[in-house]
Amino acid sequence: MNKELLIQKSIEALELSYSPYSHFRVGAAILLKDGNIIQGANIENASYGLTMCAERNTVFRTILSGYKTEDMVALALCADADEVPYPCGACRQVLSELFPLDAPIYVHNTRGKILETTVKELLPYIFNKENMD
Question: What is the total count of domains within the chain?
């Protein structure tokens, strides 16, 4: 896996962000088993509840491109901020269902701070389809 390339692609994805209200740009990139990388970014709306985070946009774009959870190898998430951008609760829930639970997630900023985590670490008590049986 090329961690550095994935991180670079998430930095490039910052340019895709539409964030005229918060000016908080977030870019994401998912590495796939076939070597492809899918990028996404946050998209804001004047009605903030309709805003979509970079992580969800990227996971949904990956699924809509014909890939499945088992095709995803790693996720990089970048923000132009002092701290690294941990996923919000809604993104953690979506990731828990559509992204591999043990795959690396690199949260980083444009200043060089990089931390590695997983969905299991971000959401240790997952609510998923097994809870609904």
Answer: 1
What average pLDDT does range 76-90 have in this prediction?
A: 95
Q: Does residue 55 carry a catalytic annotation?
A: yes
Whichever domain contains 84, its CATH number is 3.40.140.10
Taking only the tens place, the pLDDT of each residue in 13-32 is 999 999 999 999 999 999 99
* Contacts (Cβ under 8 Å, ≥6 apart) of 30: 37, 38, 58, 59, 62, 72, 73, 74, 75, 99
Q: Which of 12, 55, 83, 121 is catalytic?
A: 55
Edge to edge, what strands does the sheet with 105-109 contain?
37-41, 26-32, 72-79, 105-109, 114-117
Q: Which domain range does residue 12 map to? A: 3-132
pTM over 0.90: yes
